[in-house]
Amino acid sequence: MSVKVLIVDDQSLVRAGFRMILDAEPEIEVVGEASDGLEAVLAARQTEPDVILMDIRMPNVDGLEATRRLLDGRTDGLRVLILTTFDLDEYVYEALRAGASGFLLKDTPPEQLVDAIMIVSRGDALLSPSITRRVIEEFVRRPPASARRAPPELDELTAREREMLGLIAKGLSNAEIARTAFVSETTVKTHVAHILMKLRLRDRVQAVVYAYENGVAQAGDD
Known about the structure:
The protein is α/β, with parallel strands linked by helices. Helix content is 48%, strand content 13%.
């Protein structure tokens, strides 16, 4: 079964380039294109994609607002993969909070683009260490967690799950968490699945943001 992709970018040449790459992949079906965020929301309703390649800087409705509109309140498998020209785009943190599953540079090699789409379509997330650091740095500039009430669903986590959430927040992979916590990768995957379910989070990107915003992890943790 192929992965359905919607391409959203205000530059027609960029859209055509991505389409050419993706049309050559038997596992991927490009179901539509859009030139701004408003078109993206309408096209997503019509085509029901699995993954949306979303540019951030667009006229009318930008990619950040479009991501919010598309993902707010949704619990299905729709994933948004943000396209950016700069790896340190100022919208990184807000896009992750809005529900994006990761970031890709527009000059990413074709094979990496395809790999990224397949990764997020499976429910995994593209969260590089540099992006994790950006989340932490942004968190430092915001009010401390002590100024907010911890959400009640945090109490649903076991002590082991809270520990795992803290390790996820550091940007560790399942294999790295397994080595750190002295458990198998299968056990880690089970814990991660339980954490996402209990906290009603889309993927581990959301878990990182959640952990810092709610004091489970703190900037400067080793």
